[in-house]
Amino acid sequence: MKRLYTEQLTIGYSDRVIVENLNLSIPEGKITALVGANGSGKSTILKTMVRIMKPNGGTVYLDGKSIHSQPTKDVAKQLAILPQNPVAPDGLTVSELISYGRFPHQKGFGSLTKEDKEIIRWAVQVTGMNAFSDRPVDQLSGGQRQRAWIAMALAQGTDMLFLDEPTTFLDMAHQLEVLKLLQRLNEEQDRTIVMVVHDLNHATRFAHHMVAIKQGSIVSEGAPEEVMTQEVLREVFGIEADIIPDPRTGVPLCLPFELASIEGGGHHEQPYVQAERKEASA
């Protein structure tokens, strides 16, 4: 049985529909990357799959049951979510932040058990945060801070981890640091990881499964070599690009060189960009 999937999922804000009749299944034990241009709906899909947003129609199924009808604590024991740019209270230490991950397993306002403390120590160790456990989160570098939040998510003890643009605002070294950690968690612990990714070359290098989204619909999904094609890049991102194999791994790399032309002249634009241009010329 499929672990997590959607059927005819429709999502919107007020009267504006962002995603309509989406059918998406998340492969177990794999890293899945959701890719698409700004405003394509990828973050909206991720948020709805983990219950942050409620759908207008359709269903997200977790273990055969609607995820939106299950108790919050039950869901939190099965999947963890790291949203974009999470913020910790001033002065909160790394170990205190990570301890919040044990909340779904606590009864009432109970203190941390021996098992909780062991899991917290494990999460600190596996994310390489031993030297920072007593340091305030707001005094960490970007990469260290992301690792602390990932450790908190790991402390939930779930086998599914969702991340919304986990490398945003990080420099290249810290991006690599975070992505390699996620890769290691997948390889060593068989965790299912789903992440929204902006950098296509990060997606092809670190994901087993890619889902290319345009205007809330799936244009292409599958292994990186199936999704990273000139046709998909043209349709989803509005670019012309050379596709070359990574000299180390053989996965496809994207080298964009031109905006894609459309019939009648001009280039592809996202709907909100077109709207802004119309307003400016009015």
From TrEMBL:
<feature type="domain" description="ABC transporter">
    <location>
        <begin position="4"/>
        <end position="240"/>
    </location>
</feature>
<keyword id="KW-0472">Membrane</keyword>
<keyword id="KW-0067">ATP-binding</keyword>
<dbReference type="GO" id="GO:0005524">
    <property type="term" value="F:ATP binding"/>
</dbReference>
<keyword id="KW-0547">Nucleotide-binding</keyword>
<keyword id="KW-1003">Cell membrane</keyword>
<keyword id="KW-0813">Transport</keyword>
<keyword id="KW-0408">Iron</keyword>
<dbReference type="InterPro" id="IPR017871">
    <property type="entry name" value="ABC_transporter-like_CS"/>
</dbReference>
<dbReference type="InterPro" id="IPR003439">
    <property type="entry name" value="ABC_transporter-like_ATP-bd"/>
</dbReference>
<dbReference type="InterPro" id="IPR003593">
    <property type="entry name" value="AAA+_ATPase"/>
</dbReference>
<keyword id="KW-0406">Ion transport</keyword>
<keyword id="KW-0410">Iron transport</keyword>
<dbReference type="InterPro" id="IPR027417">
    <property type="entry name" value="P-loop_NTPase"/>
</dbReference>
<dbReference type="Pfam" id="PF00005">
    <property type="entry name" value="ABC_tran"/>
</dbReference>
<dbReference type="InterPro" id="IPR051535">
    <property type="entry name" value="Siderophore_ABC-ATPase"/>
</dbReference>
<protein>
    <submittedName>
        <fullName>ABC transporter ATP-binding protein</fullName>
    </submittedName>
</protein>
